[in-house]
Amino acid sequence: MEHITLLLGIVIVTALVFDFTNGFHDTANAMATTISTGALKPKTAVAMSAVLNLVGAFLSVEVAKTISGGLVNESGITTEVIFAALVGAILWNLLTWLIGLPSSSSHALFGGLIGATLMSVGASGVNGDVVVTKVLLPAIAAPIVAGIAALLATKLTYKLGSKADEKATAKGYRAGQIASAGLVSLAHGTNDAQKTMGVITLALVTGNVLAPGSNPPMWVIVSAGVAIALGTYLGGWRIIRTMGKGLTDLRPPQGFSAQTSAATVILASSHLGFSLSTTQVCSGAVMGAGLGRKGGVVRWSTATRMFVAWGLTLPAAGLVAAGAEFLTGQGTWGIVVVAFLLVGGSAVIWALSRRKPVDHNNVTDDEIGESAGVVTTAMAAVSVPPTAGAVASLAAEELKTTIPAPAGSSAEPASPAPV
User: At what angle do helices 105-121 and 300-328 cross, to 10 degrees?
Assistant: First the structure.
């Protein structure tokens, strides 16, 4: 019983560590556009987001119920399985943070739970219908819906303000963007903090501390809210740079449209109990806002790398969690080995990140570019060719600028000699 109690404590601490990584991994969801457009200073933005994440954690427990009693069968899950799932999710979070990709912390957690459960009890331990209806379908639909909503909102915003001076309205849009960013942070707390609540509640059920189907206790809600708020305050500056500068260049009206659309989708899904990825929703909204402005460009090379990371998150976290579950199933020594691997892997990733640190001082630096790729080349190929007159005029100008006048000649042409 003492061993079970100790292991349960380790799982709870590990779950809070995952919640902490979730916080700094997903700070970009709420504040990347606000920081990139200059609406708020970086440290002010992450502090505001941290407070609202904490408040949002107390607003609902519907998503926590989906994880603690819907995704996997409680009867076939052990505490070791949950520990292995968290190891897979944490390592994937840290790896994608290192390379600055806004992957889904939620799907890393889902993949870890599914992979560890499959290794432990087989396919019977996973509720496939819940995975499809409340994880996979929202993962596909949510970023598309948010992107379309942000695109239409951006077009409408620019159309309504077409006769107004852009500089005069920028201040108002920045104020609206701050409000919408706060709404996204609040929504993030209601959705993502609950995932850790659900995992800890599931661990308490497997440890016979709570009855199956119980709601998260208050101390679980408080600890999960504080952990995600602390992670948010530290700020995932690498991912903030990618979201704010790497996908597209946003202006205040676009930032306002993107964040309002994302917050609406996240709050609606939290109310319905859909445990979607706030990262995917916000990324889709940013791309939609980028396309909504006339002349706006989405950097598709960055978007493609992000899409690949989204597709790999579930299986990659699941494979790591399955391997961790195989080791924890060997007994105490296996649990110790997995714990050392988690700490060692995290330390290596942190050391690599210090080679080229990104913080609030350089997060808005314009160091992200995109070389001409397929889209750019295709656009150049179909551009209208210059007319013959334009070519002749250009050639004449080049000749004038490259062929010097003879020495001693005057600016005015010489008059003809009399006959």
Answer: 30
